[in-house]
Amino acid sequence: MYRNYDVKTEFETTPTDTVPLSGTSVTISNALSADQIVYKEDNSEGGIPGQVHELKTSVIELDSLGMFTYTWKAGLPNITEPYTRAIQFYYYADGATKQWKPQGLEAVILGSLPTGNNFVTKGPDVIDMVLRDPPGTCSSASWTKGTTYTKFKSHGSVWDSKNTLGTVAKLGFTVTFRQEALAI
User: Fold this and answer.
1) Which of 37, 66, 130, 178 could form a disulfide with 21 if both were Cys (CB 3.0 to 4.6 A apart)?
2) Which residues contact 144 (CB under 8 A, 6 or more apart)?
């Protein structure tokens, strides 16, 4: 449902256009997404660095209210002018393909393109050993090929529980009488 709040009718009501879109498939063209492949500098394909190689799209179906939630992670930046990329939504209605905005939503992603030699990898969860050279100029330590290292790890525990339950009940009432004399 679309309401144009800038226009009022003679009865001071806001004109409303209702477009039933529930169940409609929406195609998302997101050049801002991390799912896109981007040309890096000095690529062998001759692509412009920072430009999307082949734009991937995804399709989402609108719910009964004509709505959906779309979540994505920003990808690599465009390092050539105008430094922008866009996200666009398309749907089919009234016999034609409609688009959300003429240029989509344009944005700039900050950062730089990877050079190919800067990456992070996962290391071991537990370090097996640390090999250090002993002191002295002629001393050394080494781990030679074919050397076997065996590590045995055991874990045990004891669980003990002592529970005590007690109840104290005090019932009754106290009555105190006072006898006093009045002297005149």
Assistant:
1) 66
2) none
